[in-house]
Design a protein that fits this description.
- This protein is an alpha/beta fold.
- It has 3 domains: 3-175 and 227-242, Rossmann fold, CATH 3.40.50.12780; 273-344 and 347-461, Rossmann fold (3-Layer(aba) Sandwich), CATH 3.40.50.12780; 464-600, GMP Synthetase, Chain A, domain 3 (2-Layer Sandwich).
- It has 21 helices and 27 strands.
- Helix 5 links the parallel strand 5 (104-109) and strand 6 (130-133).
Amino acid sequence: MTLPQMLAARARRHGRRKVALREKEYGIWQEVTWEEYAAHARAVCLGLEALGLRRGDTIAILCGNRPAWLYTELGAQALGAIPAGVYVESLPEQVRYVVEHSEARIVMVEDQEQADKVLGVRAHLPRLERIVVDDMRGLEDYGEPLLTSLEDVERRGREADARDPGRYDALLARGTDDEVALLAYTSGTTGTPKAAMLSHRNLLAEAEGVTQVDRVLETDDIVSFLPFSWVGEQLLSVAIALHAGATVNFPEEPATVREDLREIGPHVLIAPPRFWEAMCAEFQMKIADAGRLKGAAARLALGIGRRASERRLRRQPVGPGVRLLAWLAHVLTFRALLDRLGLSRVRHAYTGGAACGPELFRFFRAIGLNLKQVYGQTESGGISVLHADDDVRPETVGKPTAGTRLRVSAAGEILISSPTVFLGYYKDPEATAQALDDGWLHTGDAGALEADGHLVVIDRLKDVLRLADGSRFSPALIENKLKFSPYVREAVVVGEERPFVVALIQIDMGTAGSWAETRRVPFTTFKDLSGKPEVFTLIEREVGRVNEDLPRAARIHAFALFDKELDADDDELTRTNKVRRSTILGKYRDMIDGLYVSAAW
């Protein structure tokens, strides 16, 4: 099947009896049934055809998490066109790159803000023919012939459907699962983003593989809050939701995600480490700010939870005494905490997109959340490796999903062969040839396979540091240990071809600011706060804590604090909030060199 064919099958099965989508508007949840979902995709498909979009053409989507994205994506796919996602935080030049590179003839945008970005660069987009807008507020007086509303596109589609009722079914039937379903642009941590061509077969094989390990039910709720431009969100809220028949829920605004998450109570959740780090930091700060008695009780409960969790992870028996204490800790502390975080109904929680520190992983396991590390890439369709519930290990990312094979090359690189592996990079045969070798995907990641098939991921192959004693070590491991501190937002570890390891650290403005306020340390801006001697001493203690768990050669000898927050608009982060290491090493070279000079003295 293709994704639109699966949507049509779901609509025939569930009709108006079951909710497929739910969107919060003005504080009220608006529900869309499977029949209505399919009807919107049908109307958009025929409306886009009326605008001139054809099979094989590309349509760019610049929109937040809302049903309009799904209607456009599934409608374009039913037509045989190829959607290409653009992050809503993208600058106009980044929007231009994706629209121009993908050769999109039509761009669907969310609102006036996103329409203005496209209009601002249209002189560089000779192929652009239309801008379809979901929310037309503020655009009524533009008088711009490129602009049309999504509502008008659907109206055209319904009129076309009335004239030729068999047209949509004929278009739908032409689709095959080996066609390109979407262009997923890579995060660009190593350079210019590339467009991975993922087929319907890739995505649905991925959904099948994941749900064979962790079953997703028709009665399950999913909360969609991560960008659809990211393959992880495509996997969960499109492929898995269609495959399992689960309901996808859209928060009202990015700022209300946590509140809406708690209101919905999802059963399945995927998020990058930064999301989990923020939740953990919030809990740690609440303990720090609590009274002596409450703080001691919370720390005691956490200690009990960790003891029970560690025994389960190591497959050791949990005695009746520990089991009783763990139950009390859950009832008295963790149940309310999970509810407050919106995690009380989660059966399967995943952290992906970047490495997760072992301390963060163990924290959530201790409070009773079934958090599991997963491994995959845009090019492998998302999740290729994950843990089964009864075989979770903090030091690994689990075993490959059904149909996926792994091996590690002589150079230590992880290679993947699977029905989920992408078709290649759009308009880049050279990069495709480098990535694909006789059906095997070269991931660029260093790793090792254990005897029982568990995969250990070390780091990006090119980022693994050669330390003073000749051994190799992952900077990501040190960085994740640093980021477990509630006062550290981001960290970049340096050491390749250097005499020792140093670190550049970005403080967390919220938690470090609260710490400073309670100690009457005055500050005004981020730069002012990061320059305070008291804050430097605070971070110095955190660095010392991390060094205690590191091999001597890998310990941090010196560190410096960024005087600004790292920003994707400054090319320091990707749109998925991954650090662009090469940018940092070049932009802050003087700071790094200064650390080596001062530490040498």
